[in-house]
Amino acid sequence: xxxxxxxxxxxxxxxxxxxxxxxxxxxxxxxxxxxxxxxxxxxxxxxxxxxxxxxxxxxxxxxxxxxxxxxxxxxxxxxxxxxxxxxxxxxxxxxxxxxxxxxxxxxxxxxxxxxxxxxxxxxxxxxxxxxxxxxxxxxxxxxxxxxxxxxxxxxxxxxxxxxx
Length: 164
Hints:
Blueprint: E1 6-11, E2 14-19, H1 29-65, H2 69-94, H3 102-134, H4 141-148
Coiled coil: 46-96
GO biological process, one term: meiotic strand invasion involved in reciprocal meiotic recombination
GO molecular function, one term: double-stranded DNA binding
């Protein structure tokens, strides 16, 4: 500070030292403009490099999240094994000798017809009986069903099979 290379300022009990800028050469307007141009050019280059870096990072992320060649090979082998198992199962099903005989099929169909016929008959009987009760009942059909605890096929979205 005594030689004049740095300056000293006192603020209360504190002392601040800084370079003496009077000894530094002053820049001309042309130098300042060229420095500003250089700053803007380097700023643009930095922006371009940051954008390129972001693009490369995104590409790296995509590559890291995709399967490797060995993983793909293992996946292909696994799928081939599964496919082979399904083909074998299909062949066993096609060659099975325990198919339903026409007699058994006819028996099952006739039983289904019988049960459906009985279902319709019982439903008709119940409907006629309930209609007779409801003739003298002061409330609605729905309220009566709720009080008595009757559940209908329609309550459970059940329909009779079509007559064959």
